[in-house]
## 1
Amino acid sequence: MNANEDNANINCPILALTMGDPAGVGPEIIARALSHKNIYEISRPLVIGDASIISKAVDLIGKPIKVNAIDDPLKAQYKYKTIDVLDQQTIDLQTFEFAKISATAGNAAFEAIHKAIELALNRIVNAVVTAPINKEALNAAGHKFSGHTEIFAYYTNTKNYAMMLVAGNLKVVHVSTHVSLREACELVKKDRVLSVIKLAHSAIQDFGIQKPRIAVSGLNPHSSDGGLFGSEEKDEIIPAIIEAQRNGINVEGPISPDTLYSKAAGGCYDIVVAMYHDQGHIPAKMIGFVWDNISKKWEKVSGINITLGLPIIRTSVDHGTAFDQAWKNIACEESMLEAISYASIYASRNIRPQCM
C-alpha cells in the first residue's frame, strides 16, 4: 500500500482514466472532472497519458492543481488538487498540433488505452474510464480498430460483448456498432440478438433489478409491418426473442423504433436492444446533449457508455473528441463525471457489467 495515500479515500477503487486523443477535449474534461473534490471521495483516479498534456489542460482551466508525473502506479498520491499521471511520454509539445487529426495523437491515445487495459487485467487498477478518441487518428497511427470497444475486446480476448449507453432513464445496448449501415443489417442474426438480450438482462440485474423489462427494437420501418418492408424481424429477431423468453427473460418485441425509445425513456422498459449504432445513439444523445444556439455551445453533455461482457470494468464518456471545442476552455466535463461515478460504483461492488 502506498504510504502517501490519503486515509480519507484509501478504500476507494483505483480508476485508470485514459486521456483520450490529446488534440481533443479529453485532457480538458479530465482536468475539469478532477477539480471536483467529491471525485476523490468516491475514487482514486490515476490518469494514463502524457503529463505534459495534462499540465497544459490544467493551465487552460486555471485551477490550482498540481500534476504529479510518475512512472509507477505505486507512486500515486491520490490527493485532491493533485492529478497523478502515469506518464507515457508520447507527445512532444514543441511540435504537437492541437485540435487537429494526427497519427501522433492517435498513437498517444492508443498507448494510454493499452496501458490501462494491462493495469486492469493485472488488478493494479479496479476499473478503466476512457476519454474520447478519434478513429481516423487511431487508424492513421496504424492501429486498425474501429473504436474503443473493439480495442478492449481484442486485448481482453473477449468474443461476446456489447456497448450500453446510459442517458437519464434510457439504457440502450447495441447488436452492432462501428460498421457500415449495410453491414449492420447483415449482422442482425438470431444468435447475436439473443446474445445481446442476455447481456442486457445481466447488466440491468447489476443495477439491482432482478426481473428487468427488456424491449427489442425492430430493424425495418414499423418492424417490417408483417414482412412488407423486410424479413429480418420474422427470420432473426423474433426467434431470438422467443428463445430468450423460454429462458425466463422478460423481453418483448420487436417494437417499432419510432415509438419504442420514447416509451423506454419514460420508464416503460429498463433497457432497449437496438439493432445498430445510430438507432441507439440518436435517442440517447437527444436526452443527454443540449445545444444552446445563442451561446453556440453545448449547455449539457451527459450520458455514458459501458462495455458489457469484458473481464474488466470499462466506462466512458458518450461524446467524441470535439475538435471544434478542443483547447478553448469551453468543454463540458459532465459526461466524464458520470463515467467516473459509474465506474466507482461498479468497482466498489466488485461487479463487472457482463453476462455471467
Note: The chain has two domains: 1-160+310-356, 162-308.
## 2
Amino acid sequence: MNEAAPLAVQEAAPRVSVVIPVYDEAASLEPLIDAVGTALGSSSRSFEVIVVDDGSADDSAERLAALSVSRRWLRPLYLNRNYGQSAALQAGFDHARGEIIVTLDGDLQNDPEDVPRLLDVLDAHPEVDVVSGWRVDRHDAALTRRIPSRFANRLVSRVTGVPLHDYGCALKAYRAPVLKELRLYGEMHRFVPALAAEVGARVVEVPVQHRPRAHGVSKYGIDRTFRVVLDLLWVRFTMRFLHRPMHAFGGVGLALGGVGVLILAWLTFEKLALGRDIGTRPLLMLGVLLVLVGVQLVATGLLGEILMRVWHEPHGRAQYVLRSGPRPRPARSEDR
C-alpha cells in the first residue's frame, strides 16, 4: 500500500493531520493505518497520520514503531501511561501541523474512505469549521450502545444547544484554528463540537459509514451514559458561566438568601408585634441556614470572578477570539 502514497505527503507542513488515539488495538493498527493512507493518498492532499498510543498494555507501541519506518507520513506518539481518550486527542492536537485536523477511532469501525468526504465539505463550504460524522446505520449492540447513545445525544443536544445526531462518532474534521482555542480535560472529547461552537465555530453533520468491530473488544459500556451526564453538567457550566461565575453562584445565593431574609423578617414581626415565642421554631433555623448559604454562594461567586481575572490578566489571555477577516457566507441558491 505504501507505494500508492504520493510524494506530497512528505511536505514539512501537510494540509491534513489525522489524529487517531489507540489503546490496546495492536491487531487493528496496520490495516487501519494503511486504509487511512490509501484514502488520503488518492485524494491528492498532503497529510500526516498521528497515532497516539495511550499507554497500551499490548504491543501496540512496538507495532507503531515498526510501521513508521516504512511510512514516513506516520508520526507515532507514545503516552507514558493510560491517560484517557481526551488526553490522547489533546496530545495529537498539540503535535498536529495540518490546516485541517481529522479524528477517528482506532478500532476500524470508522471507514477511512469517509475522510475525503468530510474534507470535501470543508473545501466546498468555507463558512463551515467543523464537520461531524453521523453513524446512520450503526453496527453495535442495541441495549448497551445504541439506545444509551440515542438518549445521550438528545440530552447533549438539548443542554448545549448544538443539535447533533451522533456526538459519539469519533470521525470528525476541524479547521485547526478551532482546536487551538480548546483544551480537553477529563472526558471532554465527547463534547468537542459543542465546545467549538462556543468559541464561534459553525458545525455541520454528514452521514458516514459504520462497520462491525473486527478486532479486540469495546472499551465502553452502559456506564458511559452516566459519565456523559456528569460531564455534561461541567460543559453546561463552562458554556454559560465560565466567564461570569457570579451570575451562577450569586443568582442562586441571592434567591436563597432572599427567602431566608423574608422568613426572619416574618419571625421578627411575630416576636415584636404578636409577642410569640420563636426561639424553638424550626422555621427560625431554616431562615438562618438559608441566609448563611446565600452569603456563602455570593462569596463563592466573588472568588470565581477574582480567579477569572487572575487567569486572564497576568498572562494576557484574551476573553475573546478574533477572526482574520469576515466569515465567508454560505452560497445562495440562485448563485449555485
Note: Residues 282-312 form the longest helix (31 residues).
## 3
Amino acid sequence: MTLRLQRRRFRFALLQPLRTASGELRERCGWLLRLENDQGAVGWGEVAPLQQQQFTACEQALAALPDELLQAQLEAVLREAPGPVGFGVGAALAELQGVVGVASPQGWLKAPAPALLLPAGEAMLLALEVAAASMCGLESCTLKWKVATAPDALERQLLDQLLQRLPPTARLRLDANGGWDRSTAEAWMQRLRDDPHLDWLEQPLPVEDQAGLEQLAALVPVALDESLDQHPELRRSWSGWQVRRPALEGDPRLLLRELQAGLPQRMLSTAFETGIGRRWLEHLAGLQAQGPTPAAPGLAPGWTPAGPMFSNDPEQVWAAAA
C-alpha cells in the first residue's frame, strides 16, 4: 500500500520560560506529519526534538523520506530514526492502522487530573499561592517543583516553606534534572525520606552516576527521566518509577503495549506538544490511570498557550501551523 507523506513546520512560545538545571526552554518547534493511504484514511504525527543538537538529525531524517512510500519503508525508518522522528512516524502509522483513534475500540482516552508544574526558584511560592486560590485548596493535588536551579541553601529554605503550606494529602515531586551531586542529593533525601508528601525525587543525579541513582533509590523513591532517554535499555531494567515522554522516545506503539499489559510505575510526561502529540500523551496517561500504579501525569497545565494549534482536532492544528 502506497502512503503519501506531508510535513509542515510549526513553532510556538511557552507562556513563561521553563528553567531547569540544564538550561531554559522558551519555545518549541518541529514538524507536523500527515500520512494518507490509498483509501483516504489519515494518520497524524509530530516531530519536535527537545535538545537543539537533535534538531539537525531529525531534519535530515525527515528530508530523506520521499513524499510517496510503502508502509514497509516507514517501518524500516523507525528502527534507525532519532526518537522524535520515531514518535511522529509511529504515531501516524498507528492511527492509520486503527491501533488508536476513532477507528480503535477505545477511541482517544482522556487523561486524569495532572500534576501542577511549579516554576523554579522563588517564583514557586507565588505560583503555589495562585494555584491554591484558583483551585480552592491543594488537598488532592500532586505538585512538581524544578530544583537545582538556584543556590542549594536558598532552595532548602524554599522547600521548608513549601512543605509548611501543603495540606497533609498533597503530593510532591522534586525534579533536579540531574543537577545534584551525591552529597546534595543525600541531604535532600534525609530531609524528605520520612515526609508523607513525597512522591519521588526525579533524576536527582546525573545520567552518568547510575550507581548513585541505584543507591539513592534503595532509601527513597527515585524516578528516572533523562537516564531513560540516554540509555533506553533502562526502560526494561529499572524497577522504580519511570518518567516517560513519548514524544521523544520513539515509536509510541511500544509504550502503548507496555501500558496495555499493565506494567507498573510508568508516569507520562509532556515535552510541550501541539494538539496532535497531546492526543497521544493524554491517551497513554488514560491507560496508565487504569493500570496497577495510577499516577498524576505531567501535562504542565498553564504552560502552553491556547488556540487551534493545541486543538484535539488535528486538521485545526495542521491549519494553524501553515
Note: The longest helix spans residues 275-289.
## 4
Amino acid sequence: MSEQSDYRAFDRPELLQFVFFPRKDFSSPLPGSYDYRIPVDSGVSISCRFYVHGYKSPSILYFHGNGEVVSDYDFVAQLYRGRSINIFVADYRGYGASDGSPTFSSMVADSHPIFQGFLKVLEEDAYSDRVFLMGRSLGSVSAIELAAAYPDKVAGLIIESGFASTVRLMTRLGFPQDLLGIKDFGFPNRSKIEKVALPTLLIHGEYDSLIPLTEAQDLYEHSPAGNKRLVVIPQADHNDIMIRDMDLYFGAIQEFVFG
C-alpha cells in the first residue's frame, strides 16, 4: 500500500472522529501579530497567525496540536518573542477561521502550500530566511512531512509531544487495530523521519499519558541527524509540558535555534 493510500485509509468517517477535534475561532490578532489566509485548494484557505519579534529574527512555522487554534498561542507567542523568535502558527481545515473539514490526507497535502505561503510572507516583507519547522502532537505529522520534502530550505526540525506510529496512537485511543487496515507501525512519522538529516530537537513529557515517551524515543532512534537531541520535561504530561519547566522547554528551543 502506498503512502498516499495509507493517508486515505485514515480518512474513513469512523477514524476521523478519533483524529480531529476542530474548533472554530474568528478572534482578531493582537498588536504585533498578523493574520493570513493561505489558499490550499479550490475555495479552501487555511488561517494562520504570525507573531513577530523582528525582521532579523529566525522564524518557526508551527503546526499546533489537536483541538487547538492559532489564537490559543496569543500568550505562548510572547514567550517565543521573549527569546527573540518569530512564530507563524497554522491551523487545519475546519479549525479557527479555516474553510473545509479536516482529513488526514488533506492535512498532509495542505502543509505544502502552507509552507510555500509562509516562505512568501518572509520574502515579501524581507524577514530573515533562517526558518525552522515545529509540530506539536498531531502537528508532528505536518512538520516531519515538510522536513523530509524541503531539507534545503529549513534550518532544523522541532517536535514536541510527537508520535512515531499513527497505528499505535489510534489503537491507544481505542480503535481496534484489525479495523485500521494498516500494518506499517512506522507510518507515517517514523518512516518519514528516517529521511530527515536536518538538525532535530525532540521535546517530550516524562509522563505523557496520551503519547508516551517511548514514541519520542522511537523517533530519536530512527532519526539519521548528526545533530539531534531529546529533551525530557520531568513530571510533565501531554498538556502541561510547557509550564512544567518553562526554562528547560524554551531554553532548549532557544539554544537549538541560535546554536
Note: Confidence is low (pLDDT under 50) at residues 1-5.
